[in-house]
Design brief:
9% strand, 194 residues, three-stranded parallel beta sheet, mainly alpha, two-stranded antiparallel sheet, Rossmann fold
Length: 194
């Protein structure tokens, strides 16, 4: 069995590059003008990348796209005094307030980007490996409050993107293993019935 694993993440945040400082996208080695906004640029990149992989990777290969893992800034973004000093799971209401794009929450970009990815993958042979929603509840699993000192976040800053507690990344691995085993078992049963 062959596995391909692709991921695009927080660098594609639709708010990260303001219109005054746009990214420059290239096609066939030449810059594209007029300049694309970040959303259109991401859609173009995904379209070309997915088409290349669909053409180049064997049909029987397992192609997974892991959705973005969320960050948990509260009270502002990373550069606006946001923090993630939480030691409890978020409630359903908190998750929707923080992540639902309609609510304009600080962490909404994860769902915005994931929707663009889901739209780009529609009709392809990629399987979505969605870790986002289960991870949105785990504001408590970032290193921010687990650095050994109560004032560690003041000394070293907030890390509301990476994960340090066991549990959540282990759950991702369990889901990934189940996907791989399911595909492997499916392929074995196909061979058995031929």
């Amino acid at each position: 069995m062959t596995c391909s694993y692709l991921y695009t993440g927080h660098w594609w945040s639709l708010d990260k590059f303001p219109p005054a400082t746009p990214l420059l996208f290239y096609k066939n080695g030449k810059p594209l003008f007029p300049l694309l906004n970040l959303r259109d640029g991401l859609e173009m990149v995904l379209k070309h990348m997915i088409a290349y992989i669909e053409k180049s990777v064997p049909v029987h290969a397992l192609k997974l796209w892991r959705t973005q893992s969320p960050r948990h800034f509260h009270g502002g973004d990373w550069n606006q005094n946001g923090s993630c000093l939480f030691n409890n799971l978020l409630t359903d209401q908190q998750v929707e307030t923080w992540f639902e794009p309609k609510n304009r929450g600080v962490n909404r970009e994860v769902r915005e980007i994931n929707q663009i990815v889901k739209d780009a993958l529609r009709g392809t042979s990629f399987q979505l490996f969605d870790v986002t929603h289960i991870s949105e509840f785990r504001a408590d699993a970032h290193p921010a409050i687990w650095l050994g000192r109560k004032d560690a976040h003041i000394m070293w800053g907030q890390d509301c993107l990476h994960w340090c507690l066991p549990g959540l990344p282990d759950t991702w691995v369990d889901i990934l293993a189940a996907i791989i085993l399911d595909m492997s078992n499916h392929k074995m049963s196909e061979r058995h019935w031929k």
